[in-house]
Amino acid sequence: MADQLTLEIISAINKLVKAENGERTSVALGEITTDTELTSLGIDSLGLADVLWDLEQIYGIKIEMNTADAWSNLNNIGDVVEAVRGLLTKEV
């Protein structure tokens, strides 16, 4: 069972993907897990920048990486969750 932070991040990413791609995504919300690859959701480097921006706004954090770094380090939902969790832990 996913924790609250994971569910919130999955929901935020799902909203962004639906806003950008409509219903043309290959993965349904119920099927998105921490193992879901960002590319399988249709998220490219520009989409990842949007995801990171949205998460920064939602959680009041600053993700210090350029899109190229993020693209090479954040491959799936779990990677994004752990990056946000790490930053939230530092903020406390």
Walk me through the structure.
The protein is an all-alpha fold and 92 residues long. Helix content is 60%, strand content 0%. It has 4 helices and no strands. The protein has helices spanning 4-21, 45-59, 67-73, 77-91. Helix 1 packs across helix 2. The longest helix has 18 residues, at 4-21.
Largest sheet: none
The parts where pLDDT drops under 50 for at least 5 residues are none
Please give the count of helices: 4
Percentage beta strand: under 5%
Return Rg in Å: 12 Å
Summarize the structure.
The protein is built from four helices and no strands. With 92 residues, the chain is mainly alpha-helical.
Q: How are the secondary structure elements laid out?
A:
Blueprint: H1 4-21, H2 45-59, H3 67-73, H4 77-91
Helix pairs in contact: 1-2, 1-4, 2-3
List keywords for this structure.
92 residues; mainly alpha; 4 helices; 60% helix
